[in-house]
Amino acid sequence: MKVKRLFNYKNSQYDEQLMSVPHNFAVKHDENKAVTEMTIYGIIGESYWSDKYTSAIDVDNALKEANGNNVVIRLNSPGGSAFDGIAIYNRLMSYKKEYGAKITIYVDGWACSAASIIAMAADELIMGLGAMFMIHEASSGVWGAKNDFRSEADLLEQLEEGIIDIYMTKANVDRKEVRKKVDAETWFSASKAIEIGFATSAASTTVEDNPKDELSNLRAQNANLQNEISQLKNQQNQEPTPEPVQPTNKRKGFLF
Asked: Which of 10-14, 105-109, 205-209, 230-234 has the lowest mean pLDDT?
């Protein structure tokens, strides 16, 4: 059976798995440990016809009850709304700044598209075994005259520049390289996500200490150090994030 594609991915080999990711948004506040655990599985965004989406409002409400706790997020999402992904990222960053809290994100399966933006809010991003991280171009639906399509293309370019601003807070390569990876649609394994600076570590294969794990940790630490150096350089040339443009009734939303 052919799977209907909700996401505009160039690489369609994972369509069936991505479409089968079940929705699960759950929150648990542990005041004794001062930790709030949040599960974000499934599509990111807000839907008028289904409650099986995780929106920025859901995350905002959870953080209002976190009372300054450190936050641990279990993430497994094919993406969804670009603007909800951006809003969740900024809400997490504001929470960190307000309370000095630490945010740890575990990628249990997928951190694709809009979910990859959320992942950038992590102080520690841990990729699970076999987990994947993906970045690509934003897309949208629009109807209208030729100028509507030109306007939409301009808006998508500005939206992507803002998203790349977010990736550049972690990336240890230059902006042109990140832009190329966005345009090409790039999938990262755990080791590749660590190498570029998006992730900080990968889940260990065994519970016992292993020389290979120690080597992996050292590589991750070196990648993090290079990442910090690159971030300082990138901040000097950081472009301002564009103000989001409110969609008109001719647009059908932005998938990312």
From this structure: 205-209
d(CA 38, CA 142) in angstroms, rounded, equals 34
Q: What are phi and psi of 177, to 5 degrees?
A: -70, -40
CA atoms of 117 and 199, how far apart (whole Å): 12
Mean pLDDT of the chain: 80
CATH number, residue 159 = 3.90.226.10
Report the alpha-carbon distance of residue 86 to residue 113 in Å, rounded. 11
Mean pLDDT of 183-188: 94
Segment 46-85, tens digit of pLDDT: 765 567 789 999 999 999 999 999 999 999 999 988 999 9
- Determine the structural domain holding residue 120 and report its residue range: 15-255
The two three-digit tokens of residue 188, written as one number: 């990262």
Beta-carbon contacts of 220 under 8 Å, excluding residues fewer than 6 positions away, are 194, 200, 201, 202
Number of domains comprising the chain: 1
Residue 4 lies in a domain: no
In this structure, of 54-58, 96-100, 252-256, the range with the lowest mean pLDDT score is 252-256
The residues, ordered by sequence, that sit 6+ positions from 61 with a Cβ below 8 Å of its Cβ are none
* Cβ-contact 200, 127 below 8 angstroms: no
- 74 pairs with which residues across the strands? 39, 106
Is 3 within the bounds of a domain? no
pLDDT at residue 188, rounded to an integer: 97
Tell whether 143 is covered by a domain: yes
Q: Is 186 a member of any domain? A: yes
